[in-house]
Amino acid sequence: MKRFLSVVVMTCAAGGAAAAVALHGRAAHGTTYRTVAVERGAIAATVSSTGTLGAVSTVQVGTQVSGQIAELKADFNSRVSRGELIARLDSTLLWLEVRQVEAVVRQARADSVVKQFALDQAQPLFEAGLMSRADYVTAHAANEAAQAALTSAEVSLAKARQSLSYVYIYAPIGGTVIERNVDVGQTVAASFSAPQLFLIAADLREMQILVSVDEADIGAIRVGQPVSFTVEAYPNRTFTGTVRQVRLKSATSNNVVSYTAVVGVANPDLALLPGMTATVAFEVARVTDVLKVSNAALRFQAPAALVAEWRAAHREPLAAASAGLSDSMARLWVLDAGGRPGILTVRTGLSDGVSTAISGTGVVAGLRVIAGAGSNGAAAATGAASPFQSTRSSGNGGPPPPGGV
To answer: HSE on the CB side for 104, CA within 13 Å?
Structure first.
């Protein structure tokens, strides 16, 4: 019987030890603390915005003459070369106009011959005194008028022939047809402006994003900065690009001033399409091989029980541990192996909105720090990030120093 009781006591003791390990981080007052580890790695601060993908160069192809579409040689997504025939208008009316002007030219040429002959006949008569000066001047003026009429008719003929050539529409650049706005049989009218028949993108393997950046963030954007972005079509894929230009022209909407940053993007597999909305992150700063901790640990507000336990252990007010903290410093709460609370004062650095670089005495990789507290075995993170915080990561001091009185 004693042997059985001994086994039971040993079993209970072992179970108690296991429970102590499972409840590591639980203080004597029954509060459970959620801890996170200090890690070593890189941190990149970013500025986020949205923009629209588009081709680097697009050309609207129109027509300089009115007419009916007789033939289409290109369609949506067609690859075309520079100088390639992509459409043809019906040429019947323009050809008739050419023939009409040719008749006018022949008539003007015949009239000029007559007027030139009359002047040639009047010249010796005038010199011999057999023709008055008025009649001679009249003959000379009639010849000049006939020659001018001939020149005008010849210009009209050249114009008519040029207009006739415009029924053939060629691709001004090589690329991909991304819009076709006409069909065979449709009549287009070129009056004050040329109607758009096609929209051709130069090369969709090289694209750009026009990103609207708030005036508060534009100062951090520089040509050559690396950029990462995502599109809704590929939620699990991250694309990269480079800032090519920051345009000086501003735009104002609802009293908010913004500028346009042009991001160059390589698109070798043609996965990205014109018009896609891109969520862009500009990398404005980066540090590597630093110690970092979750921002939840920096925002942790110590509950009254933890503050009381710390006071009992150190016999001084909590404010004494916060004396001299600057904007670039913060306080981390830790628990030792015995579950007793402690405080580490750290210097904060670059933050990406999730983690912040830290340094200071006693800060090492793997150190467990308190990030949240709960009761009845349920840990609750009190330092969760607010959904309303700015999309710009702070690179100066990270989040504000946490702690309660």
So the answer is: 18
Last residue in a domain, options 141, 166, 191:
166
The Cα 9–Cα 368 span in angstroms is: 33
Close Cβ partners of 366 (under 8 Å, ≥ 6 residues apart): 37, 38
Give tens-digit pLDDT for 188-208.
Answer: 988 767 789 999 999 899 999
- Among 254, 269, 286, identify where a domain stops: 286
Question: At 141, which CATH number?
Answer: 1.10.287.470
What CATH number is attached to the domain comprising 226? 2.40.30.170
Distances 354 to 46, 162, 292, 350, 351 between C-alpha atoms, Å:
11, 66, 10, 11, 7
* C-beta atoms surrounding 332 within 10 Å: 25
Which amino acid appears at position 154 of this protein? E
The token duo for 258 is 């913004």
Give tens-digit pLDDT for 243-297.
999 999 999 999 999 999 999 999 999 999 999 999 999 999 999 999 999 999 9
Q: What is the pTM of this model?
A: 0.64
Beta-carbon neighbour count of residue 172 at 10 Å? 15
